[in-house]
Amino acid sequence: MVDQLNLKNQVCFPVYTLAKVIINHYRPLLDELDLTYSQYLVLMVLWENEEQTVGQIGEKLVLDSGTLTPLLKRMEQKDMVVRKRSDQDERVVKLSLTEKGKLLNDRAKEIPHRLMDSMKITENELVELKDIITRILNKQL
What we know:
The chain is mainly alpha-helical. The chain has helices spanning 12-31, 37-48, 54-61, 65-77, 99-108, 111-119, 123-140, and strands spanning 51-53, 81-85, 93-97. Helices cover 64% and strands 9% of the residues. α1 crosses α6 (111-119).
């Protein structure tokens, strides 16, 4: 019988460790752009959708406003994004990219391939891993 409390038999530990490893591989790539991993995620949302509310970004990144607000303030100070209250409802804060934020898109285009190279993983392996993780998450969220 398998000991379920043995660390080597746990699924959570390798997933947790892998998340840390992946972020550590991102770090030098993002340092070149003066970005944190969280800032990179926000930018990816805005590169896909030019303007988003703080709520929409939080929903897409599974982050609450208490985590997101200081992050967005730092990004605004670095001239990557502009925050503006909605004219229709001033409780709603909209985010859009500055010129600098838009230009970072071109500089970031090589990050996925450089990440795969640094992790010594193929695109197919990465897609397979992402698909498994996505299936599990879709059942939980």
